[in-house]
Amino acid sequence: MVDRSDLIVTGQVTRTWTAWDDQRQYIWTHNEIAAHTVDKGSPIQKVVVSEPGGVVDGVGMRVAGMPNYAQGEEVMLFLERMPNGYLRTLGLGQGKLRVAVDGRVHLTQTGADLIRIRGARPGTALESLEALPASQVRQLVTRLVQQRQSGRQQ
Amino acid sequence: MNRTGLVAFLLSTSMAWSYVPLDPAHPNIHRSDYANVQFLVNQAVAPGLNNANGSAWITSDSDPLGAIAGALSTWSGIATSALQFAPAGTTAAVNTPTDRQNVIVFSDTPANRSLLGSTVLALTTCMYMASDGAITDSDIVFNPAYTFSTSMAYNTVDLQAVLTHELGHALGAGHTTVLGASMFQATSYNDNHQATLSPDDIAFAASRYPAQGGNGNGILIGKATLSNGSPIRGGAVTVLDPSSGITIGSLTSLTDGSFEFQAPPGNYLIYVEPLGGYVVPANLNIPSSTVVDTNFQSTFLGGNDNPSMVNLTAGASLSVNIQADGPPPMFQTPYLATDSAGSSGDMVLFERGPVSISSGQAADILISGPGIDPLTEQDLQILGAGISIRAGTLRKDTISLNWQPVYRVTVDIAPAAISTLGTLVLSKGSNLATFTGVFAVGQAPAASIQP
């Protein structure tokens, strides 16, 4: 997940709104995140994470399995940039970890809308992150990012 | 908020469902054209189709149009439902969610890649009127990042299984708590069990779109509470007939813990289990701002030591209340795999999700995960038709998984003419967890079924 993320941030959801896209084809729900930390990607203070679905002007669009955000939520996010420029949660909700008031992370979603089940294989199982302190998960992420960067430089 | 709006909101949040709706916040999303749903297939869909990078998208040995016809007829063939799909037409149209055409499309565009992301296999965009929930357009879009087949070719995704699942969304079904059902949220390579509707999927169609003469189901109405009397909001409730294997799941109300089931006549066990593990609230589109109660363990009606059976008859309405106790079980969702009966130390692929096994054979089931060790035969039970654990076969394998021991047990599965499900029950002392429908038992080869 670290490899596939363009941006990994920890922050708070400050605003959520729905809108048609520029082509008025799909409805998207946009979620603004005030970034406290950035563990992969360029430093940034604010990011907008967009997911398909929502209701605008009496018209609804629903896609099963899309992650949702609530204003005030503390989250750790693994994000990927889409061809249309939007940032989306990696692996649908798998890339969204909720940070509880005690500072521990919680998975918000397992496989979603016919995402392919991942069997047991080398690497860190996502489930093993459940209830770990966010600081520990960030250390793990930072170490992996650094490993990848040094690997590319060699 | 005006009065009408407030009433509508209260109705929607206290409603109990016979299935998990596509959107628990808007449970009335439905089709008004259910008696003749017309899907069109984009003309590009063909064997040997490549994505924009030149990689195989549909293998050349596939019959995609046959698979599409098969998926449509699967949903149309439910005797207890008025639901019917028209034969699929072809079209040059693509997925335009505002054109009021339902299109099945393989179209590798930046817009579709943006919509799909990198990990989802396919999705359905359901457009609906917020006022009454009527679906106006539903397009099914396949991801160019994966290779689909109808031949179970190695490392491919079964096209018909995926489409059967997506058609469920197009009908207004959400993801289910029954792991082996077609509407479960995930699938594996080379696995087509989701091309077959389970009783859980059929219960959705029969209760949402009942047949004209009625669906022949009975109704179970009740409430799930904790031992302190507070409601269990968003608990997974299951009715399971051990003799037929019929397994139907739903959610308790997100406000008052009530539930309502429609199920075919049968003798049912009923239990409530917390979301978590394989299925978490967001998998069911429950908003992250909604409180879901998970601080309890799976509890059967009548208690875990001596569960009660409920006899449900056609047209009857029964009232049942379940009181659940905590704490959550100490063991986590297990990794599971299957292997040849009696083998040992083999390389196997573990899954965190449903496992497919064929009926009419013996097989080893492998179990591993935190908190599982030590495991005894008394800790294991499989609820389902014709699935039995062979006494004295539980043993520790020579392999381990993530530094956890792996246990093997041999099960005997009677030949069956129809697909069915098995539910794993793990208990240790007063701790008990259920993994509902985790074994998807396929039909036996015709030769092995007794006439």
CATH topology category name of the largest domain in chain B: Collagenase (Catalytic Domain)
CATH architecture title of the largest domain in chain B: 3-Layer(aba) Sandwich
Number of distinct helices of chain A: 1
**How does the helix and strand content of chain A classify structurally?**
mainly beta
Stated plainly, the CATH topology of chain A is called OB fold (Dihydrolipoamide Acetyltransferase, E2P)
Mean pLDDT of chain A: 86
Order of helices and strands of chain B: HEHEEHEEEEHEHEEEEEEEEEEEEEEEEE
Question: How much is the average pLDDT of chain B?
Answer: 90
Number of continuous helical runs of chain B: 5
Say which CATH homologous superfamily of the largest domain in chain B is assigned.
Answer: Collagenase (Catalytic Domain)
Strand content of chain A: 35-45%
Largest sheet composition of chain B: 5 strands, mixed
Q: Let me know the largest β-sheet of chain A.
A: 7 strands, antiparallel
Structural class by secondary-structure content of chain B: mainly beta
At the first level of CATH, what is the class of the largest domain in chain B?
Answer: Alpha Beta
- Poorly predicted sequence stretches spanning 5 or more consecutive residues of chain B: 1-15, 447-451
Distance between the termini of chain A: 22 Å
Largest interface: A-B, 51 and 61 residues
Record field, number of beta strands of chain A: 10
Task: Give a written overview of the molecule.
The complex is a heterodimer of chains A (154) and B (451). Chain A is mainly β. Chain A has one domain: OB fold (Dihydrolipoamide Acetyltransferase, E2P). Chain A contains one helix and ten strands. In chain A, strands 1, 2, 3, 6, 7, 8 and 9 form a seven-stranded antiparallel β-sheet that branches. A two-stranded antiparallel sheet of chain A has the order 4-5. Chain A starts with 6 loop residues before the first strand and ends with a helix. The model of chain A is unreliable at 112-122 (pLDDT under 50). With 451 residues, chain B is mainly β. Chain B has three domains: 30-171 and 173-194, Collagenase (Catalytic Domain), CATH 3.40.390; 216-324, Immunoglobulin-like; 335-445, Immunoglobulin-like (Sandwich), CATH 2.60.40. Chain B has five helices and 25 strands. Chain B has a five-stranded mixed β-sheet, covered by helices on one side. In chain B, strands 10, 11, 13, 14 and 15 form a five-stranded antiparallel β-sheet that branches. In chain B, a hairpin with a 6-residue loop joins strand 10 (236-240) and strand 11 (247-251). The chains are: A mainly beta (154), B mainly beta (451).
